[in-house]
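Long-time lurker. I teach an intro course on protein structure, and each term I like to show students one example going from raw sequence to a predicted 3D structure in token notation. This year I'd like something fresh instead of my usual example. Would anyone be willing to generate the tokens for the chain below so I can use it in lecture? Attribution to the forum is fine with me.
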Amino acid sequence: MASVRKTLLSLNAAIFIVAAAFSVPTVGPAYAASEIKYVVNNVPVTNYDIQRRAAFLKLQRKKGNLTKLAADDMIDQTLKQGEMRRLNIRMADTEVDAAYARFAKSNKMTPAQLNGVLDKAGVTAQHFKDYIRTQLGWNRVLSARFRAQGGTMSEQDAVRRMLQDGGNKPSATEYVLQQVIFVVPASERGSMGKRKKEAEAMRQRFTSCESTREFAKGLIDVTVRDLGRVLAPELPGDWAEQIKATKIGGATPVRETDRGVEFIGICRTREVSDDRVAKSVFQAEGSEDDQAGELDKKYMTELRERAKITER
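-- Reply from a regular --
Happy to contribute to a lecture. Here you go:
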């Protein structure tokens, strides 16, 4: 969903304006203690978790009772993580680290400098990365719910939008893609490093989609899937940036997923402009944006109503 995908970096883009001036007061020893304050569906939320989130909210210049806001935030995060587990949505460390690095760069810092700011503020890099991991995964949860509810723009809506734009049809890049998956069962996650090396070796040999299956013949548990034609606005959010940055005949960087280790090859591309493109572009620009906030709110209300939340 277009608006949901913006949540991670744009929602908090102002957190480190002036880079918190690198003058955040050092946190005292009170942060060292840790005890359980809430139990959310049998998952503990400690006062240390809440303290770190309160420090995070302070960096965002949030007003009000930060401890109460932080507790609510951590309860919500725990509920989101539980729903991610239920849906088997798993964010790879490489995805989280890449988002962390992009955030640092957007605030004119290196990851090491960002580490320093977060540690000094009492947030810690790990807490922020946990937040990133949850935001990325929750985006996927919302996208899955949106699709399951049949969230699409009608052809009549697309025609109406074109008329508003003077009858002009937008254009978009159409990708022909191929996905290569080095399957790693959940019980064998310890062998991920070896599989990543195998996947990287194959990725480096990738020059076109015609030869992929030949390369995969001698490899164990490797799946090659032709994804067909995909318009740029319809690219999966977790792959979109990498696909757009990859040249024709090349392949995206290797990354870990809930299936194992994989990459996507770019078979060919072309610019297209027709009714299908108009519907896709307009839907990405507006239809989902209008519904994303409401869907998020409704979903969280459902999770809270079903949850068992105990305060200690």
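Some talking points for your students: The radius of gyration is 22 Å. Strands lie at 36-40, 43-46, 172-183, 222-231, 255-256, 260-272, 309-311.
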